[in-house]
Amino acid sequence: MSAIAARRRRVAWKVAESAILLGMLFLILFPILWMALTAFKRPADLFDLTLVFTPTLDNFRTIFSHPWHIGHTLLNSTIVAGATVLVSVPASTLAAYSFSRFEMPAKGLLFFLILATQFIPAVVVVLPFYLLFRDLGLLDTPLALIIVNLAIVTPFATWMLKGFLDAVPTESEEAALVDGATRLRVIWDVVVPMIWPGVVVTAVFCFILTWNEFLFALILTRDEAVTLPVGITRFRTERGDLWELIAAAGILISIPMFLMASVIQRHFVRGMTGGAVK
Question: Which of 36, 89, 90, 108 could serve as a FRET partner for 191 with CA atoms 20 to 30 Å apart?
Answer without folding.
Answer: 108
